[in-house]
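Sync notes, pocket subgroup
Present: LS, DG
LS reminded everyone that the earlier model was apo-only. Rerun requested with S-adenosylmethionine included. Inputs:
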Amino acid sequence: MNLCDIGYVKRLMSRHQTGTKKSFGQNFLINKQVPEAIAEASYSYHLSRGQKKSLVVEIGPGIGCLTYELAGCYDKVIAIEIDKTLLPILDETLGEFDNVEIINNDFLKMNLEEFFGAYREEYDISVCANLPYYITTPIIMALLEKARGMLTSITVMVQKEVADRLCATTKKGDYGAITASIAYYGEAKKLFDVSPDNFLPAPKVTSSVVRIELYDKPKYKVNDEQMLFKTIQGAFSQRRKTLLNSLGTSLGNISKERLGEIIAELGFDASVRGEKLDISDFCALSDKLGEEK
Ligand code: SAM
């Protein structure tokens, strides 16, 4: 069965009296090589790191084309789909697998600590998804913040410009708050691009597959994580401004003069912008800011 055959997808949806929904970010893959490559990118990393049984959690299985590939590799697949009209379709397309469980829920409303916590002893857990574009950043941030320490990797397809942001460095790319935040938890790698003609309906922009390889244990030491993320958010709160001006506005309790001294103590010029600081610079800055009362 080829779940990416465009004729098959259209007939299946019409037989189940449903269609693709823009409101749920539904752009289904119609080239089998793409879900094969995404599943391979996820599972090969599990093989290089995993020691226990393998579990992959997929967000948004759609009609099940990526789920199908994941079910062929992983010991267990749990796929969370918000659109209940797709459930009878998934029963049909994935009926041959006894290692697949479908949950009808909004991923962003789930208690992720509890959900992932229930499997962490028995399984090495990966996340893999062709993400709905309208909630890419909230999903990635929720995974990093709530499932930290419980995941091996997150392999996701996102819009190319988002991928460039996730994988930027202080020297290259569109570095922002999410870039620095991801760097605290792991390393984001852009793997390959996917053109619009691989989707039904075709989106307006190119997509890219990114794998975030998560650290087992925190790599960077920081006194107060909340302060770190407040510092990162503050540094990018006003895109075109210097670090001094952005932080001066967002952290009201420290004078600009003192902020300038702290930035200089870290070895940066007064005109530096947030995108020049890597995650270890942000940790050092946050520790210094935390000492100020
Ligand atoms: N995996 C399929 C594929 O690659 O063809 C579908 C990917 S489509 C881009 C995104 C999927 O996420 C859709 O099936 C959509 O209904 C689902 N979705 C959207 N928002 C969701 C949410 N908050 N929680 C769970 N699933 C969601």
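DG: The chain has two domains: 6-214, 225-290.
LS: The chain has a mean pLDDT of 95.
Action: DG to write up.
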